[in-house]
Amino acid sequence: MKKADIFEFYRRLADANPSPETELAYGNVYQLLVAVVCSAQSTDVGVNKATRQLFAEVKTPAQMVQLGEAGLKEHIKTIGLFNGKAKNVIALSEILVRDHGGEVPADRDALEALPGVGRKTANVVMNTAFGAETFAVDTHIFRVGNRTGLAPGKTVLAVEKALDKRTPHPFRIGAHHWLILHGRYICKARTPECWRCPVADLCRFKPKTAAPKNKSAPIQVD
Fold it and tell me: Which residues are catalytic?
C-alpha cells in the first residue's frame, strides 16, 4: 500500500470514529492493566461482565492483594484460563505494591517484567493509559494488516514493526483502536464485510465479499 493510500486509509477510519477507545471497561490505569491481562483469549464483552463487580470493589493493587487469589477467582471464573490469570494478577499486584508504590509504571520493560504481561499487553497499557505511540497487535490487527496490505508480516512482531514504520501522524496514537475495531466489526475473520467497508477500494483483498440480499449497498466514500 502506497503512502498516500495509507494516509487515506487512516483518514477514513478516523473520520468515522474521531475518538477511538478500547471496549474494555475500567476506572483507572491499574484496572486497565488487570482488564487487559484478563482479556487474553477472551472477549472484551466477557471480561467486562466478569470485572464489573470486581472493579466496584477493587481499585488498587493493595485491595487486590487483600482480596486474594481465591476471591479473585470467584469474580473472573466465567472467563477462559481464569486460574492462571488470577495467579498472575495477584502476583503483579504484589509487585506493584512492593516495587512501584502501588502505581502502574509507564515503562515497557517494567510492565513486561510483571507476571502475565507480555509485549501486546504492555503496548495496550502504554498506548491507552499513557498516550504512547505503540501498536498492540492482536489477531484482529494481524489479520487487517496482512489482508489489506497496510502492514503485512509473517509474525505479530513483524506486523507491529510495519505499523510503526508506516503509520503517519496524526494517526499513530489512535491506530491500534481503529484497526482492532475495524477487524472486529467489518474486516471479520471468516467473511469480511467488504460491501460496507469504508476502505475497500484501498484494500488488496480479493475477491471482495458482496452484500447479502437483505443488506444495503456498499458504503460510498467521499
Answer: 120, 138
Residues 123 and 171 in one domain: no
- What CATH number corresponds to the domain at position 108? 1.10.340.30
Judge whether 39 lies within some domain: yes
Let me know if residue 219 belongs to a domain.
Answer: no
All cell numbers assigned to 30: 491499574
* Predicted pLDDT at 155: 97
197 labeled binding residue: yes
pLDDT at 219 over 50: no
Find the largest Cα–Cα distance for the chain.
59
CA 29 – CA 125 distance, rounded (Å): 8
DSSP conformation letters of the chain: --HHHHHHHHHHHHHH-SS---SS--SSHHHHHHHHHHTTTS-HHHHHHHHHHHHHH--SHHHHHHHHHHHHHHHHTTSTTHHHHHHHHHHHHHHHHHHSTT---S-HHHHHTSTT--HHHHHHHHHHHH--------HHHHHHHHHHSSS--SSHHHHHHHHHHHPPTTSTTTHHHHHHHHHHHTS-SSS--GGG-TTGGG---SSPPPPPTTSPPPPP--
User: Mind listing the pLDDT tens digit for each residue in 122-154?
Assistant: 999 999 999 999 999 999 999 999 999 999 999
User: Is residue 38 a known part of a binding site?
Assistant: no
Domain residue limits at 119: 29-130
pTM flag (> 0.85): yes
Are residues 124 and 61 located together in one domain of the fold?
yes
